[in-house]
Amino acid sequence: MQNKPKTNAELMEQSVKRRLLVAPVLDLGEIVSSPQLAAREFAITLPSPVDGAPVKLPGAWAKFSETPLRLTRRAPRIGAHTNEVRGDQRRKPLSIAEATLASVRAKSGEHDKLPFDGIKVLDLFWVLAGPGATRVLADYGATVVHVESSKHIDTLRVIPPYQFANPHPEGAGGFQSANANKLGVSIDMHMPEGREVILDLVRWADVVTSSFAPGVLDHLGIGWKTIRALNPRAILLESCLMGQTGPWRTFTGFGNLAASVTGYMTLAAERGGIPSGPWAAYTDFIAVRYNTLALFAAIDEQRRTGRGQRIDQAQAESALHFAAPGVLDFSVNGRVVRGVGNDDEHYFPHGVFACLGKDRWVAIAVRDDRDWRELCAEMRREDLLALREERAAAEAAVAAWCAEREAGAIERALQARGVPAHEVLDTAALYECPQMQHRGHWIECEHSIYQTTFVESGRLKLSELEPLKPKAAIHFGRDNELVLKGMLGYSEERIAGLAAKGALT
């Protein structure tokens, strides 16, 4: 007997109930109307800047227990607050003399202290959405102790690219980049002995971060109540797919599943085609930015008031801020945005075009008639000038022209004319990219197995301060002795006992 097809709601219900790695492909209307967002009161209502009618908008991208984010002002009309801003002395720009003095002081070393010097972080994050955020803190002075265990291996350690294409967990490039500049310890926190070490690190830390599923920290005996009792000024940031509350809180998986339930699979599709989705764990790459901002805000509050707090960061909710125009289209017009491939409402021709060679491509975006004139001139096809609005014919002409030329040559020629264009780079070409090399993006550091490896640079560059440069790649247990003996004051006998019991693996 054939099974009856399931609705998206039924699939989600069973996925949550059974903790399956299965996600329905929801559109923006379905996620915005979901019981999960309703239970978490994610949407806020503000007056429309056009007619004052109530409009539902994406709400706070993280829930702060002590200093909740409050969105109370509607989007402004053009120039609505010009006089208010000009009259606010706090926003007055520095004079040339003041700016020059500040720069001189910084370069003289008077302000050479890194922004997060003295901040101590217990990093229980894993994969990418979390570790990328604590990497920023480590780059700018924080002491970040990243905890892992070879018994419960981090997924990012088994994802390529690998050093020398050798699929070894110690050579996973993504893991090394996400955790550069951190101290790495191996602790099995599922063992009572390992849990005691974690609790000592909680007492030591200013910040604790976790990306476990809701309830796991409590099950391990290191939940928020315990952390607050041990360290009242501590910050706890918990990041997961759907948040710590709501009927979908136990939804299990990675950012690719979160991308499915937040509408991105239907947005990344050919016009009229089946959902295809953005590659990889897309919401991880969004959430890592919001995790970083959340930590910045909480640390600032902690420094000023001594107050810690719990932060509940849901990947799904932060991801919806990246799809805000589509969310508004649904809430205001009742219209669900669908995928249109590489088409763009305002830029055309707009797409990725095949070039000479195997799997070689160039991306081109024509913003206006001026760009179109320059592109036609480069193609020597002035006969196309009047045909820009005939999108199919225009793009066919561009595709035929690109097919006979090298992608790099097209990029250089069009950029010289001010037309947005870039060769689509593979990994090797990305490494060789002159812009990436100029910015020092790839950093060579020591590796315990391969002698040397490369990690990516930090995500931020400050005008007056250089981030710390990673010297050595993390390997399992690399800094166990430094952290346990040097920072927690454990005796050599206690460390040896922990190792003998298997708590440091």
Describe this structure as you would to a colleague.
The protein is 38% helix and 13% strand. Helix 6 (131-139) packs across helix 13 (282-305), helix 11 packs across helix 13 (282-305) and helix 13 (282-305) crosses helix 14 (315-322). It starts with 7 loop residues before the first helix and ends in a 5-residue tail after the last helix. The protein is an alpha/beta fold. The longest helix has 24 residues, at 282-305. The model has no long low-confidence stretch (mean pLDDT 93). The protein has helices at residues 8-18, 28-32, 35-39, 82-86, 96-107, 131-139, 173-178, 192-204, 216-220, 224-230, 255-261, 264-267, 282-305, 315-322, 324-333, 369-379, 391-402, 407-416, 427-432, 434-438, 480-487, 492-500, and strands at residues 44-47, 54-57, 63-64, 120-124, 143-148, 183-186, 207-210, 235-240, 310-314, 350-354, 361-365, 421-423, 442-447, 451-456. The chain contains 22 helices and 14 strands. The strands form 4 sheets. Strands 3-9-8-7-4-5-6 form a 7-stranded mixed beta sheet, with helices on both faces. A 3-stranded antiparallel beta sheet has the order 10-11-12.
Secondary-structure content class: alpha/beta
**Mean residue pLDDT:** 93
Q: Estimate the strand proportion.
A: 5-15%
Strand order, sheet with most strands: 3-9-8-7-4-5-6
Helix share bin: 25-40%
Low-confidence stretches: none
Can you count the helices?
Answer: 22
- Strand elements, count: 14
